[in-house]
Amino acid sequence: MTPATASPNASPVSELIELLSLERLENNLFRGQSRDIGTKYVFGGQVLGQALSAAQATLDSADAAKGPRAAHSLHAYFLRAGDIEAPIVYDVDRTRDGGSFSVRRVTAIQHGQPIFVCAASFQIHEHGAEHQLPMPNVPAPEDVAPMQKLASNTLAHLPSKVQRWLDRMGPFEFRPIYPRDDLNPPKRPPYQQVWFKLIEPVGDAAELHRALLAYASDFHLLGTATFPHGISYYQPNVQMASLDHALWFHRPFRADDWLLYSIDSPSAQGARGLARGQIFDRNGGLVASTTQEGMIRVLADDNAGVPAKGG
Fold first, then answer.
1. Catalytic residue status for 218
2. Active-site option among 36, 218, 256, 281
3. Rounded to whole angstroms, how far apart are CA atoms 35 and 84?
4. What is the largest CA-CA distance in the chain?
5. Which backbone phi and psi does 212 adopt, to 5 degrees?
6. Burial class (CB in 10 A: 0-12, 13-18, 19+), 42
7. Which helix (H) or strand (E) holds 44?
8. Of 108, 52, 51, 49, which Cα lies nearest the Cα of 81?
C-alpha cells in the first residue's frame, strides 16, 4: 500500500487532520495511514499524534458523570523505524479507569512487529494549586520573520527526500527567534525558541488540538542537541533517530494560535542527545512540556550516506 494521499485541493491542515482521524477496526483496534513528507521513515510526530488519537477514542468507558477526561501526559518509546509505504495498526489496552484518572497503553504495529509503544494518562477537570515558570522574553511572533525557502539552485543539489522536506508547505508555520542554517550549521549553545501555529484555523475540539500538538512537538526538539557540535540531520554522515518522547499537557490551548516552543539540551553523550521543551501560549501561559532522547551518530567519511536505522 502506498502512503496516504489527499485530494489535490486539500490544504496541508486538512491533510493532517485526516491523517490523525483513524479507522476503527474493533473496539480497541485502529488503523492509520502514513504520509511521506520527505523524511526517510515515518515522521515520529505522526505516530505520536495518531497514538494519542487512538487512546482518546477509547475513553467512552470512563465515568461520564464526572465529566470528560483530558490527556495530561504521554510517555512513548520508538522501537523501530516506521515504513512510509504501509499503514500502522494501533492496539489500545484499556489499562485502568479510576475515579479521576484513566490510563491507556498503545502499541503501534507494522508488518507484524511493534514499532512504537506509549502510555497515556487522562484526568477529569479538577481545581488545585497552580504555579508556572515565566515565558522567555522574546519578540512577538508578528515581529519575527517567517522561515525562508531555500533557493531552487541550492535545493537541486540535495537528495530528493531532503528537497521535499525543505520545499514543502506543511500544516504548521514556524518562526525561529534565532534561525540557523542547517545545511551549513555553525556551533552555538544548545537552546532555541520557535513560534509556531497551524496555518489555518480548525474547530474547537480539545482532543484534536492535543493530537495536533503531539504531532508538532517532534519538530525542532532533538535537533537542539546538535547545536554545540555544528552538525545537522541534513548532513549525509549524520544519523539521527528519536528513541523516546514524553509530553505533558498543563493548560488549555489552541494549536491554530501562536505557541512558543522554548527548547534546551542539557546533555549529549554515548551517541545520544537529550532535549527538553516548554510550550507557552502567546499570553505567557505554560501549556505543555516535552522531553526527548534521541540517537545522534556522526559517521566516518567512508560511511557517509548510509541511511539511519531505528535505535
1. yes
2. 218
3. 6
4. 63
5. -65, -40
6. buried
7. helix 44-56
8. 108
Is there a catalytic annotation at residue 46? no
Mean pLDDT of the 248-266 span: 98
**pLDDT tens track for 153-167:** 666 666 666 656 565
What was the pLDDT predicted at 163?
59
Buried b (16+ CB within 10 A) or exposed e, 83-114: bbeebbbbbbebeebeeeebbbbbbbbbeeee
Pairing of strands 29-32, 88-97: antiparallel
- Asked whether residue 292 carries a pLDDT value surpassing 80, the answer given is yes
Q: Where are the domains of the chain?
A: 12-125+143-303
Cell of 80: 523501530
- Beta-ladder partners of 126: none
pLDDT at 204 over 70: yes
User: What is the structure's pLDDT at 1?
Assistant: 38
The reply to whether the predicted model has a pTM over 0.85 is: yes
Q: Is the dihedral of CA 104, 110, 112, 115 positive or negative?
A: negative
Is position 11 annotated as part of the catalytic site?
no
Query: Domain 12-125+143-303 - what CATH class?
Result: mainly beta
Cβ partners under 8 Å of residue 4, min gap 6: 18, 19, 33, 34, 35
3-state class percentages of the chain: helix first, strand second, coil last, to nearest 5? 20, 35, 45
Q: Which one of 33, 110, 278, 292 is the catalytic residue?
A: 292
